[in-house]
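=== RUN LOG ===
request id: a7f3
mode: sequence -> structure
chains: 1
length: 239
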Amino acid sequence: MHHEIEFKEVVFEYPEKKFGLYNITFNIGIGTKFAVCGRNGAGKTTLLRILMGLEEHQAGNIKVQELTLNRENIKEVRKRIGFVFQNPDSQVFSASVYEDVAFGPRNLGLEEEEVEKRVEEALKSVDLLDCTHESPFRLSFGQRKRVAIAGVLSMDPSIIILDEPFSNLDYPTRTSLKKLLENSVLKRGKTIIFTTHYRKLINEWADSVLFLDAGKILYHGNVEDLSIIDEADRFLGPF
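=== RESULT ===
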């Protein structure tokens, strides 16, 4: 069976031995919503950094769409993965919304005509076409978040990672963002990986979940069976 991503017995330790990942084995299905949860220091960020090639695992094997994640393949792997930061201000920096969304495709070396087409499609998918020439810094937090998502969509990755995508958003904005992601990402057959502290969001939105604790897997599987883990309700917020 083919998976979008496979981790097999992955080990990573920082030199100071404070945090790490130990014997991590799981897979993510194609076109699914995969939640990664765990308290601070559990290893969520480290796992994402390894997947993005920002850290190098010391043992085990990782495959992204059947491609082994190593130094030789890292550039190709990065083309297949888009990352949306928790705070859009870490990602949105240009003078206009258009320039911001065009940054990625231009970095890919695409012709300006193709860049223009991708920017238009991405902004349309996040319902921001009317803000094309606006300064992103004049937009609301939720709108800037959508600009950041459009910037990733314009590069057309098949896997999109969202770090705490629904934090700092009110209920209507969270609801509209979920619908936006379903329409602009999932309906295109892409895979979403997201981190969260919200139990309700995992229950309502994830297809499967990885629960990390102190760098080890406490649970991996479908959302329904997460209820058997006592630790889950102790630290996950209700949303």
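=== NOTES ===
The chain has one domain: 5-235.
The chain has eight helices and ten strands.
=== END ===
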